[in-house]
Structures are given as C-alpha cells and as structure tokens.
C-alpha cells in the first residue's frame, strides 16, 4: 500500500487521480488537505510515501509547500499535479526539488511517475545511510585503539589503520597488499585460514584469543573479532579487529598468582567491610579455616570477635578496635579460640583498605599461628629461670659443702679416736650421719645446678634399666605394675652411669607418687631422629639422632600451671615433710649437664610421660672396672695446701699430718709466691681449691710447676665451675676430690696420687 497525501482544493480532481492509480493496480491510502495549517499537522502525524500537490491553490502556493516538505522529510517524493502552467514554473519546481510535474490532462503518467519517484527516494535514502555509515566507520577505524584491517579471500591486506601500525610496528605502505599471515606464528596459520574460509562462506565466528607477532619479532596476546564485509549481499572482504590484551593477561595472571599465594599461604587472611553494621567478614582464606577449624561459610558475615574467649587479653582487643575506628595499622599478639574450643596464640596484623577518595571501606587482617613460638618462649624463660636458680643453688651448695667438710671431717676424726664405750659416741655418730645426709642434699643441688663433677662413659642404657629393675620394683611397691619396652639395637650414649641411674630412679619415684592408688608404669627406650619440623615442640633441641628414654605413668596428671614449675628446686605438690622438692630438679640438672633435653606430656586425669633425648654417639662401649681403694699407708712427703677457707684448710692440714705428711699451707696466691720464693723445701704434691678469690686453682698450679716441674695436683671444690673441669665433666688425667670429704677419702686419694709417680695435671 502506498500512502499518499494530496494537497488539493478540488475533491473531484483527487478522485480522478485515485482512479488513475487504481487502473495501474496500485493500492493507495490517501488523505486530502487544502490549507497550509492542515498540511503541517497531517504531514508530521503519519508516515507518508509521497505528496501530490496542485500548483495553483487559493490560500497558498506549491513552492511554499515544497519547502516545508523538504524540511520535514527530505527524501519524500513531492510531485506537482496541476492544470495548465507555464514551462518556466514547471522547471522552477523541479529545480526546487520536486520529483515530477504532471498535467492533469496527462493522468496516464501519474502511476509510473509515483513508482519512479518512490524508487529514487529509496535509493537516495540508502545512499545517505551508506554515506553516514561510511563516515562513522571511517571515524571508528581512524580513532579506534584496536588494530583494524581488511583482507581478501587469499589473506592479503586491503586496509590498515593507524592503530594497526602502532600495534604491529608495520606502516600501511609495508602491509597493504602483503600477506596477513606475516603477523601470525607459523603454527597458527592453518587455524587462521580455516577461520577466514568460514567468514567468506558467510559463517559467524565468535571472538577468540590468540597470539600475534610484532615487526620486532616479539609475540603478544590479542583478542580477535572477525566479520564479513558485504556489498550488495556479496562478501568482498574480511574485517579483523585486534586488541592487545597483554595487560589483561598479566592482570589475570597476577590475580591467579595472588589466589594461589592465598591458597598456599600459612597465614590466615580475613577481610572485613567497615561500611556495613558490625564490620562483618567478607573474605576468609583457606589457611584461616585450617588454623581455626571454621569453614569459610561459617565465618562470612560474622564479626571476628567470635574467635575470642576467656583468655583473650581485653586490652589487646581494645587496641585493635581503636585501630579500626581510627583507620590505622595495628599489630597485636593475643589468644584466639578454635572451633573445637582449644586456644592458640596468634600474631594479628590489620591494615585499612581505602577507595579512590581515601575513605576506608575494608580492613584486611593477617593472622599467624604463633603458638609454637610462644611455647618456645615460655620454655626459654623457664630455662633461664632455672639457670638463675641453678646458679644460686650451686653457690649455696658450695658454701654448705665447706661447712659439711668441717662437720664430717672433725666428727670422723673424733670417732676414730673415741672409745667404743664412750657415752658421747652415739651423739657424735648422729652429727656425722646428719652431715652425710646434708652432703647428699647438696649433691642433689649440684646436680640440679649442673655443677657436679661427672665421669661420663659410653653405654647402652637398656643394660642399666635391666640391672635396676629389681630395685625399681622395690621402690614403687606391689600396687604399681612396672613394664619395659626396650628397643633392640639401641644406640649408645655418653653419660655418667650413676647420674643416669639417679635420673631413672627419680622419675620412677615421681611416677609412683602420682599413683597413690596404684596403676601402671612403663619404661621405654627408642632410637629417634629429629628433623627441623619436629623441633617446634622442644625449646633447646637440635636436629640429629637421639636415644629417647620415656617414663610413663597412669596417674593423676598435671595442669599446665604445675608443669611450668615441676623442675624448680624445692617445688613439690606433696604434703609438708613428704618430699624435698629436689627429685625432678635433679633430673633437670643432670639432663642439661649431659647435653640432653627433656619434654613433659601430661594432662589431668590422663597420666604423665617424661621424655629425655640423649644424643647418640658412635664410640665403643666403655668398660667399667672397679678400683680397689688404696691402702691407708702413712706418708713422709711434703704437701702444699692452697685453700681460702681457713677452717677447711686447717682440717685438711690436720688430717694429712695425722697420716704423717709434712704440710705447707697457703690461703691465696701471694702466700704461694712467698713459699715458692723461699725454696726451703721440696714439694711432692699440690692440693688446691679450684674456685678462690683472686687466683683460681688452675692458675696456682701453673705457677707452682714452674718451680716444681712434674708436680702432681689434686683439685678440691664444693662445686666445679672452672676451666680445669669443663662444664663439670671430668677429664681422665685430672685428680679431683669433691667436698665434703672424709679423712679416709682424703688420705686414700693422696696416697693414690703419690704412689702413681707421674704427673696428673694439664
């Protein structure tokens, strides 16, 4: 149907024109107007295909109508149908834009004229649209950041925009007419050909990502969009858009790397949204779930305070909250709680995340599980505390040993001369026995303080355990079942046999006391190798091979608070008068002095296990031969005694003179120098205390042997913390006498050294 607007003041003439059009088999919808106002209203109210206007109108002329029509619809055909008119007027209308001028006497031409005008209008509209599209495309191609090129069916380049020149490095002169395959890696050319063939067949190819090569040979990632260029429905070229996606690929890789890093990170990562009420968590990393036991879904949307508990420091929490309110960084150490209710230490670092305007929108928190570090710190603090207590205990033991030397020595001398029926003899025996018991107490203090003199041997501790089994069973009683689990092929260790026996007995007695109603006690030995990952549980451990001794009981167990104190001297959970509090302190000292370390595993109601790790040694097993004591034969030699304690020096002199020796005494190095300067007699033996004010025993010995070469020496001390006896471990060539000593012990040692007739010093 053709929609025609008639501008005609004669309805009859309109009917004649419609009749002519119907005779030409044209279907027409028509309306008639005869005023310029109606024309303006109708021409814009409906879509029209053509306007037929009379030239001679009463109220207005056709020229004005034509001008209005072209301003509203430039491509709409405007045909003048009129009566007699001059040729000049007809030409004028055609020049003004009318498509035809038909006389009303020639209606036979009307249908063909309208059809021709409609075709021409359609062509004009199509050309105008094509021109507009061409201009738009040219602007797009010229200004596009994408490289745009067109290629023919053989892949030869037909056009090449500025962005293509910048992207690939080739000028348009270099590329137009050249093969587009020059831009692709050789291995991709078959795939590119297949895509191009599909385009020229009329198929649509979705955008894809690929790789292209610049003029300098560098390959780079691109996204490619290809489509067909058609002219009159015929595909004449392929247009390709290339976008450099290097930055996007790098960003994606950076994001993937970040995600992998977050997945692999051992620290827990949380992100909270401070713009929402209660600052909820909006992101939680897998490591956070692993540390806390909460799944990510259980965390999202919650405030992180759910991790806090009774032991969480309120002051630390307050500092974190203030940092969030102030949008500042913060780092704190505090206790959190896992999903299972167990507590653990974390180091929490939080930092604000700001938007482009600098406003804080989120907070990121990184939490590291520092439980192992805190445990090591506690163990180290405990070790340092024990070291300080040990030094004090060693000093006390040294002073007591000097006093006990006097008590035991003089009581022994009195007993040797007192008649058996003397009524005072029993009192003196009690004094002597009390001195001996006190000496045992100071011996334990020295063991705890690691200032005891040891004679380490290479041995297999399985043999010691087996030999002690009967004694241990007597110690624990019948209501405690003792069992052994001793590894076959156990490695050797170096330790003082007596000290090891003391450690084992003390641990067994401690286990017995933890089972007042009876129970089971297991002694285990095992070869173990510790690696770096296992060291976190032990404060002073190192990698290597060890022999582990374990003593386990089924007793009452211990709280963490008691566990922290059990190795402190004089600490005990027993009733007053039921224990000295030195049993485990002695174990601690012996273990440390032997270069080993220990661990305690205990839980209330589930018993206790003491683990001791002795370093493995690859040496032959020592043979332990028993020495028969030297016979107390009186002597005539001259002995130099150097001792700063007057009472101990006087006792020593008296004992030696009772055995027939000549004695020269000195309290310090100046007196020694005076004796050496006089040269009035020959000295056969030096007996010197090790630790003295001013000059120690080692230096005294060095000075004396300059005057009396090859002079034997006996070192004496209430404890040993001197370079002569390194770390309390006795060297075989050194003769040592531990205070307190008895007259017979001193006499035997002196006779043994003098009879050896060889140098025993350094």
Automatic annotation (TrEMBL):
Modified residues annotated as 4-aspartylphosphate in this record: 54, 689
PAC domain sequence ranges: 328-382
CDD domains to which the protein is assigned, alphabetical: HisKA (cd00082), PAS (cd00130), REC (cd00156)
Entry EC number(s): 2.7.13.3
Reaction it catalyzes: ATP + protein L-histidine = ADP + protein N-phospho-L-histidine
UniProt entry keywords in alphabetical sequence: Phosphoprotein
Signal sequence, start to end: none
Histidine kinase domain residues: 395-618
Domain PAS, residue spans: 133-203, 254-303
Entry's Gene Ontology molecular function annotations: phosphorelay sensor kinase activity
InterPro entries with a match to the protein in the record: CheY-like_superfamily, HATPase_C_sf, HATPase_dom, His_kinase_dom, HisK_dim/P_dom, HisK_dim/P_sf, PAC, PAS
Response regulatory domain: residues covered: 3-119, 638-754
Name of the molecule in the record: histidine kinase
Organism, scientific name: Telmatocola sphagniphila
């Amino acid at each position: 149907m053709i929609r025609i607007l008639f501008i005609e003041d004669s309805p009859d003439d309109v009917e004649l024109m419609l009749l002519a059009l119907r005779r030409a088999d044209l279907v027409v919808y028509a309306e008639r107007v005869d005023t310029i106002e109606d024309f303006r209203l109708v021409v814009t109210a409906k879509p029209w295909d053509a306007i037929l206007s009379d030239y001679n109108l009463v109220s207005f002329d056709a020229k004005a109508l034509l001008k209005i029509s072209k301003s509203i619809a430039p491509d709409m055909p405007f045909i003048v149908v009129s009566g007699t008119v001059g040729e000049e007027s007809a030409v004028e209308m055609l020049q003004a834009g009318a498509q035809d001028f038909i006389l009303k006497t020639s209606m036979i031409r009307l249908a063909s004229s309208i059809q021709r005008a409609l075709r021409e209008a359609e062509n004009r509209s199509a050309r105008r649209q094509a021109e507009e599209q061409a201009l738009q495309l040219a602007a797009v191609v010229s200004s596009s950041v994408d490289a745009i090129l067109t290629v023919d069916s053989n892949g030869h380049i037909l056009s090449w925009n500025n962005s293509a020149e910048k992207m690939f490095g080739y000028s348009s002169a270099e590329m137009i007419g050249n093969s587009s395959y020059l831009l692709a890696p050789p291995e991709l050319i078959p795939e590119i050909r297949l895509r191009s063939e599909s385009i020229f067949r009329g198929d649509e190819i979705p955008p894809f990502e690929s790789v292209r090569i610049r003029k300098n040979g560098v390959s780079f990632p691109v996204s490619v969009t290809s489509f067909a260029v058609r002219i009159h429905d015929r595909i004449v070229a392929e247009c390709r858009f290339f976008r450099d996606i290097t930055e996007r690929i790098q960003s994606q890789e950076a994001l993937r790397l970040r995600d992998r890093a977050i997945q692999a990170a051992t620290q827990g990562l949380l992100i909270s949204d401070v713009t929402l009420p209660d600052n909820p968590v909006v992101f939680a990393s897998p490591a956070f779930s692993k540390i806390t036991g909460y799944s990510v879904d259980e965390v999202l949307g919650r405030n992180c305070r759910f991790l806090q508990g009774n032991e969480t420091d309120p002051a630390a929490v307050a500092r974190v909250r203030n940092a969030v309110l102030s949008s500042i960084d913060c780092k704190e150490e505090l206790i959190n709680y896992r999903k299972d209710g167990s507590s653990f230490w974390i180091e929490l670092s939080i930092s604000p995340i700001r938007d482009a305007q600098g406003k804080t929108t989120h907070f990121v928190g990184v939490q590291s599980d520092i439980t192992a570090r805190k445990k090591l710190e506690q163990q180290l603090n405990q070790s340092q505390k024990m070291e300080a207590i040990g030094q004090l205990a060693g000093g006390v033991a040294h002073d007591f040993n000097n006093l006990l030397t006097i008590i035991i020595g003089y009581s022994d001398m009195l007993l040797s001369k007192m008649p058996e029926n003397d009524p005072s003899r029993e009192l003196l025996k009690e004094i002597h026995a009390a001195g001996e018991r006190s000496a045992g107490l100071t011996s334990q203090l020295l063991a705890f303080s690691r200032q005891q003199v040891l004679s380490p041997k290479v041995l297999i501790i399985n043999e010691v355990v087996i030999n002690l089994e009967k004694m241990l069973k007597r110690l624990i009683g019948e209501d405690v079942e003792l069992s052994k689990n001793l590894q076959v092929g156990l490695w050797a260790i170096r330790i003082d046999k007596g000290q090891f026996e003391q450690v084992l007995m003390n641990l067994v007695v401690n286990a017995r006391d933890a089972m007042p109603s009876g129970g089971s006690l297991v002694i285990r030995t095992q070869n173990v190798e510790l690696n770096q990952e296992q060291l976190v549980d032990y404060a002073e451990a190192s990698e290597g091979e060890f022999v582990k001794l374990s003593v386990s009981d089924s007793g009452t167990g211990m709280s963490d608070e008691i566990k922290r104190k059990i190795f402190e001297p004089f600490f005990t959970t027993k009733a007053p008068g039921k224990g000295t509090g030195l049993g485990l302190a002695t174990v601690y000292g012996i273990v440390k002095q032997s270069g080993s370390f220990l661990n305690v595993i205990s839980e209330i109601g589930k018993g206790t296990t003491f683990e001791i790790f002795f370093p493995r040694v690859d040496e032959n097993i020592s043979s332990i031969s028993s020495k028969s004591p030297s016979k107390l034969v009186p002597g005539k030699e001259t002995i130099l005694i150097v001792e700063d304690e007057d009472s101990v020096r006087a006792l020593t002199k008296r004992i030696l003179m009772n055995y027939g020796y000549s004695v020269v005494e000195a309290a310090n190095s100046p007196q020694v120098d005076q004796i050496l300067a006089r040269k009035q007699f020959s000295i056969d033996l030096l007996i010197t205390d090790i630790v003295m004010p001013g000059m120690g025993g080692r230096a005294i010995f060095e000075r004396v042997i300059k005057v009396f070469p090859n002079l034997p020496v006996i070192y004496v001390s209430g404890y040993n913390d001197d370079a002569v006896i390194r770390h309390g471990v006795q060297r075989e060539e050194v003769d040592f006498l531990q205070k307190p000593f008895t007259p017979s012990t001193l006499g035997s040692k002196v006779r043994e050294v003098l009879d050896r007739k060889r140098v025993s010093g350094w």
